[in-house]
Amino acid sequence: MKIDEPKKGFSISVTGSMAGVREALTQIRNQLSDLGISENTCGTVELVLAEAMNNIAEHAYEPESPGQLHICARVSPSFLRFDLQDFGKPLPDQGLALGKLPDHNVPVHDLPEGGFGWFLIRTLAASVKYRRENEKNQLTLSFPRKNMGKCNL
Amino acid sequence: MDLQSTYHNNLNIITVKDARIDASVAIRFKDAMRAATNEGPPLVVLNLGNVTFVDSSGLGAIIASMKQLDSNRKLDLACLTPDVAKVFRLTRMDSIFDIHENIESLKCRAAG
Protein backbone atom coordinates (compact mmCIF):
# COMPACT_ATOMS: atom_id res chain seq x y z
CA MET A 1 0.00 0.00 0.00
CA LYS A 2 1.30 3.43 -0.91
CA ILE A 3 0.89 6.09 1.71
CA ASP A 4 1.13 9.73 0.73
CA GLU A 5 4.27 11.22 2.20
CA PRO A 6 3.41 13.96 4.67
CA LYS A 7 5.96 16.64 5.40
CA LYS A 8 7.00 14.70 8.45
CA GLY A 9 5.95 11.23 9.44
CA PHE A 10 6.79 7.58 9.28
CA SER A 11 5.22 4.18 8.82
CA ILE A 12 5.94 1.01 10.74
CA SER A 13 4.67 -2.54 10.27
CA VAL A 14 5.00 -5.19 12.95
CA THR A 15 3.37 -8.46 13.94
CA GLY A 16 0.26 -7.78 16.02
CA SER A 17 1.64 -9.62 19.04
CA MET A 18 2.87 -8.45 22.44
CA ALA A 19 6.46 -8.62 21.19
CA GLY A 20 5.47 -6.74 18.04
CA VAL A 21 3.79 -4.02 20.09
CA ARG A 22 6.92 -3.56 22.16
CA GLU A 23 9.05 -3.33 19.04
CA ALA A 24 6.67 -0.77 17.48
CA LEU A 25 6.66 1.36 20.63
CA THR A 26 10.45 1.48 20.74
CA GLN A 27 10.62 2.51 17.09
CA ILE A 28 7.88 5.13 17.49
CA ARG A 29 9.52 6.67 20.56
CA ASN A 30 12.86 6.91 18.75
CA GLN A 31 11.27 8.42 15.65
CA LEU A 32 9.30 10.97 17.68
CA SER A 33 12.41 11.96 19.63
CA ASP A 34 14.28 12.42 16.33
CA LEU A 35 11.46 14.69 15.15
CA GLY A 36 11.94 16.88 18.22
CA ILE A 37 8.80 15.88 20.10
CA SER A 38 9.07 16.61 23.85
CA GLU A 39 9.70 13.80 26.33
CA ASN A 40 6.37 14.49 28.05
CA THR A 41 4.45 14.23 24.78
CA CYS A 42 6.41 11.12 23.78
CA GLY A 43 5.45 9.51 27.09
CA THR A 44 1.77 10.28 26.61
CA VAL A 45 1.77 9.02 23.03
CA GLU A 46 3.64 5.86 23.99
CA LEU A 47 1.12 5.03 26.71
CA VAL A 48 -1.94 5.59 24.50
CA LEU A 49 -0.47 3.66 21.57
CA ALA A 50 0.54 0.84 23.92
CA GLU A 51 -3.04 0.54 25.16
CA ALA A 52 -4.51 0.67 21.66
CA MET A 53 -2.02 -1.84 20.22
CA ASN A 54 -2.31 -4.19 23.22
CA ASN A 55 -6.05 -4.30 22.53
CA ILE A 56 -5.31 -5.34 18.96
CA ALA A 57 -2.81 -8.02 20.05
CA GLU A 58 -5.14 -9.34 22.77
CA HIS A 59 -8.58 -9.02 21.16
CA ALA A 60 -8.44 -8.45 17.39
CA TYR A 61 -5.93 -11.26 16.82
CA GLU A 62 -5.58 -14.70 18.34
CA PRO A 63 -2.28 -14.86 20.26
CA GLU A 64 -1.27 -18.03 18.39
CA SER A 65 -1.85 -16.52 14.94
CA PRO A 66 -1.35 -12.74 14.99
CA GLY A 67 -1.63 -10.81 11.75
CA GLN A 68 0.01 -7.59 10.67
CA LEU A 69 -0.27 -4.26 12.45
CA HIS A 70 0.47 -1.09 10.48
CA ILE A 71 1.13 2.24 12.12
CA CYS A 72 1.26 5.45 10.13
CA ALA A 73 2.33 8.60 11.96
CA ARG A 74 1.92 12.16 10.74
CA VAL A 75 3.53 15.05 12.52
CA SER A 76 2.49 18.63 11.90
CA PRO A 77 3.55 21.67 13.93
CA SER A 78 0.35 21.52 15.98
CA PHE A 79 -0.78 17.87 15.88
CA LEU A 80 0.37 14.28 16.01
CA ARG A 81 -1.82 11.74 14.28
CA PHE A 82 -1.51 7.96 14.30
CA ASP A 83 -3.44 5.58 12.10
CA LEU A 84 -3.41 1.99 13.36
CA GLN A 85 -4.59 -0.68 10.97
CA ASP A 86 -5.12 -4.37 11.61
CA PHE A 87 -6.89 -7.24 9.86
CA GLY A 88 -8.36 -8.91 12.92
CA LYS A 89 -11.78 -9.14 14.50
CA PRO A 90 -13.81 -5.91 14.75
CA LEU A 91 -14.31 -4.11 18.04
CA PRO A 92 -17.37 -5.47 19.88
CA ASP A 93 -20.60 -3.85 18.59
CA GLN A 94 -18.49 -2.03 16.01
CA GLY A 95 -17.66 0.67 18.47
CA LEU A 96 -15.33 2.23 20.95
CA ALA A 97 -15.50 1.61 24.68
CA LEU A 98 -16.50 4.62 26.78
CA GLY A 99 -13.50 4.11 29.03
CA LYS A 100 -14.90 4.81 32.45
CA LEU A 101 -12.38 4.82 35.29
CA PRO A 102 -12.89 1.70 37.45
CA ASP A 103 -14.01 2.46 41.01
CA HIS A 104 -11.05 2.68 43.38
CA ASN A 105 -13.00 3.53 46.55
CA VAL A 106 -13.24 -0.14 47.49
CA PRO A 107 -11.46 -2.50 49.92
CA VAL A 108 -7.96 -3.50 48.80
CA HIS A 109 -9.04 -7.00 47.80
CA ASP A 110 -11.70 -5.60 45.47
CA LEU A 111 -9.39 -3.15 43.70
CA PRO A 112 -9.57 -3.38 39.91
CA GLU A 113 -6.62 -5.04 38.15
CA GLY A 114 -7.76 -4.04 34.68
CA GLY A 115 -10.18 -1.88 32.77
CA PHE A 116 -7.86 1.11 32.65
CA GLY A 117 -6.86 0.85 28.99
CA TRP A 118 -9.72 2.68 27.29
CA PHE A 119 -9.85 5.18 30.13
CA LEU A 120 -6.22 6.13 29.45
CA ILE A 121 -6.82 6.31 25.69
CA ARG A 122 -9.92 8.48 26.12
CA THR A 123 -8.27 10.73 28.70
CA LEU A 124 -5.01 11.36 26.89
CA ALA A 125 -5.90 11.39 23.20
CA ALA A 126 -7.57 14.54 21.86
CA SER A 127 -9.58 12.47 19.41
CA VAL A 128 -10.25 8.76 18.89
CA LYS A 129 -11.92 7.49 15.73
CA TYR A 130 -12.68 3.94 14.69
CA ARG A 131 -13.71 2.61 11.33
CA ARG A 132 -14.35 -0.94 10.17
CA GLU A 133 -13.82 -1.20 6.44
CA ASN A 134 -13.04 -4.05 4.06
CA GLU A 135 -12.34 -6.48 6.92
CA LYS A 136 -9.88 -4.01 8.41
CA ASN A 137 -9.90 -2.09 11.69
CA GLN A 138 -8.71 1.48 11.39
CA LEU A 139 -8.14 3.41 14.61
CA THR A 140 -7.06 7.03 14.40
CA LEU A 141 -5.63 8.76 17.45
CA SER A 142 -4.73 12.44 17.52
CA PHE A 143 -2.82 14.52 20.00
CA PRO A 144 -2.09 18.23 20.12
CA ARG A 145 1.65 18.90 20.38
CA LYS A 146 1.18 21.49 23.09
CA ASN A 147 -0.86 21.11 26.29
CA MET A 148 -1.10 17.39 25.65
CA GLY A 149 -4.44 15.72 26.14
CA LYS A 150 -7.71 17.17 27.27
CA CYS A 151 -6.81 17.73 30.88
CA ASN A 152 -3.52 19.57 30.55
CA LEU A 153 -1.24 16.90 31.94
CA MET B 1 11.38 -10.60 35.16
CA ASP B 2 14.41 -9.45 37.11
CA LEU B 3 13.65 -8.39 40.68
CA GLN B 4 16.23 -7.73 43.37
CA SER B 5 15.07 -8.16 46.94
CA THR B 6 16.98 -6.64 49.86
CA TYR B 7 16.18 -6.36 53.56
CA HIS B 8 16.78 -3.38 55.83
CA ASN B 9 15.67 -4.30 59.35
CA ASN B 10 11.88 -4.49 59.08
CA LEU B 11 11.76 -3.35 55.49
CA ASN B 12 11.84 -5.41 52.30
CA ILE B 13 12.87 -3.40 49.25
CA ILE B 14 12.18 -5.01 45.89
CA THR B 15 13.93 -3.30 43.01
CA VAL B 16 12.70 -3.90 39.47
CA LYS B 17 15.75 -4.20 37.21
CA ASP B 18 13.81 -4.10 33.94
CA ALA B 19 12.83 -0.81 32.29
CA ARG B 20 9.29 -1.85 31.37
CA ILE B 21 6.35 -3.45 33.15
CA ASP B 22 3.99 -3.92 30.23
CA ALA B 23 1.45 -6.39 28.86
CA SER B 24 4.18 -8.72 27.62
CA VAL B 25 5.64 -9.23 31.11
CA ALA B 26 2.69 -8.49 33.41
CA ILE B 27 2.01 -12.12 34.38
CA ARG B 28 5.70 -12.87 34.88
CA PHE B 29 6.01 -9.74 37.03
CA LYS B 30 3.07 -10.79 39.19
CA ASP B 31 4.52 -14.30 39.62
CA ALA B 32 7.98 -12.94 40.45
CA MET B 33 6.43 -10.60 43.01
CA ARG B 34 4.52 -13.49 44.59
CA ALA B 35 7.77 -15.45 44.92
CA ALA B 36 9.67 -12.43 46.27
CA THR B 37 7.02 -11.53 48.84
CA ASN B 38 6.08 -15.05 49.90
CA GLU B 39 7.34 -14.22 53.35
CA GLY B 40 9.05 -11.28 54.97
CA PRO B 41 8.44 -8.13 57.00
CA PRO B 42 5.10 -6.29 57.02
CA LEU B 43 6.30 -3.45 54.79
CA VAL B 44 7.36 -4.16 51.21
CA VAL B 45 8.58 -1.27 49.06
CA LEU B 46 8.66 -1.67 45.32
CA ASN B 47 11.48 0.47 43.93
CA LEU B 48 10.47 1.53 40.41
CA GLY B 49 13.45 3.82 39.86
CA ASN B 50 14.67 1.82 36.84
CA VAL B 51 11.21 1.54 35.29
CA THR B 52 10.47 4.07 32.55
CA PHE B 53 7.22 2.58 31.28
CA VAL B 54 4.14 0.98 32.84
CA ASP B 55 0.98 0.33 30.82
CA SER B 56 -2.45 -0.63 32.16
CA SER B 57 -1.49 -4.32 32.28
CA GLY B 58 1.64 -3.45 34.25
CA LEU B 59 -0.44 -1.27 36.55
CA GLY B 60 -2.87 -4.18 37.05
CA ALA B 61 0.06 -6.47 37.90
CA ILE B 62 1.36 -4.01 40.51
CA ILE B 63 -2.14 -3.78 42.05
CA ALA B 64 -2.34 -7.60 42.01
CA SER B 65 1.04 -7.73 43.79
CA MET B 66 -0.44 -5.70 46.62
CA LYS B 67 -3.60 -7.80 46.76
CA GLN B 68 -1.72 -11.08 46.96
CA LEU B 69 0.05 -9.99 50.19
CA ASP B 70 -1.36 -11.16 53.53
CA SER B 71 -3.75 -8.62 55.01
CA ASN B 72 -1.26 -7.58 57.72
CA ARG B 73 1.35 -6.60 55.11
CA LYS B 74 1.56 -3.56 52.88
CA LEU B 75 3.08 -2.65 49.54
CA ASP B 76 4.45 0.87 49.05
CA LEU B 77 6.04 2.29 45.91
CA ALA B 78 9.18 4.36 45.53
CA CYS B 79 11.11 6.38 42.94
CA LEU B 80 8.46 6.73 40.26
CA THR B 81 9.81 8.13 36.98
CA PRO B 82 7.66 10.80 35.26
CA ASP B 83 5.75 8.59 32.80
CA VAL B 84 5.08 5.97 35.47
CA ALA B 85 3.89 8.61 37.95
CA LYS B 86 1.49 9.87 35.29
CA VAL B 87 -0.20 6.44 34.99
CA PHE B 88 -0.73 6.26 38.76
CA ARG B 89 -2.01 9.84 38.90
CA LEU B 90 -4.46 9.47 36.00
CA THR B 91 -5.97 6.23 37.30
CA ARG B 92 -6.10 7.64 40.88
CA MET B 93 -3.99 4.71 42.04
CA ASP B 94 -1.67 7.30 43.62
CA SER B 95 -4.37 7.52 46.31
CA ILE B 96 -4.21 3.76 46.97
CA PHE B 97 -0.46 3.34 47.35
CA ASP B 98 1.89 5.24 49.64
CA ILE B 99 4.51 6.58 47.25
CA HIS B 100 8.00 7.52 48.45
CA GLU B 101 10.22 9.87 46.54
CA ASN B 102 13.46 8.17 47.43
CA ILE B 103 14.65 4.94 48.92
CA GLU B 104 17.54 6.22 51.06
CA SER B 105 15.32 8.09 53.50
CA LEU B 106 13.19 4.97 53.89
CA LYS B 107 16.26 2.88 54.71
CA CYS B 108 17.31 5.48 57.28
CA ARG B 109 13.89 5.38 58.84
CA ALA B 110 13.93 1.57 58.93
CA ALA B 111 17.37 1.61 60.53
CA GLY B 112 16.43 4.32 63.06
TrEMBL record, chain A:
Pfam families of this UniProt entry? Answer: HATPase_c_2
**EC number annotated for this UniProt entry:** 2.7.11.1
Is the keyword Zinc in the record?
Answer: no
CDD domains annotated for this entry?
HATPase_RsbW-like
Top-rank taxon, per record: Bacteria
MF (Gene Ontology): protein serine/threonine kinase activity
Does the record carry Transferase as a key word?
yes
At the top of the EC hierarchy, this enzyme's class is transferase
Per UniProt, residues of the Histidine kinase/HSP90-like ATPase domain are 20-142
* Keyword terms: Kinase, Serine/threonine-protein kinase, Transferase
Q: What name appears for this protein in its UniProt entry? A: Serine/threonine-protein kinase BtrW
The protein's organism comes out as Roseovarius litorisediminis
Q: Which gene encodes it?
A: btrW
UniProtKB/TrEMBL annotation, chain B:
Signal peptide positions on this chain: none
**Cited Pfam families:** STAS (PF01740)
Q: Which domain of life is it from?
A: Bacteria
Q: Which Gene3D superfamilies match?
A: STAS domain
Residues forming the STAS domain are: 18-112
Single GO MF descriptor:
anti-sigma factor antagonist activity
The UniProt similarity line reads:
Belongs to the anti-sigma-factor antagonist family.
Q: What is this protein called?
A: Anti-sigma factor antagonist
Species the sequence originates in: Roseovarius litorisediminis
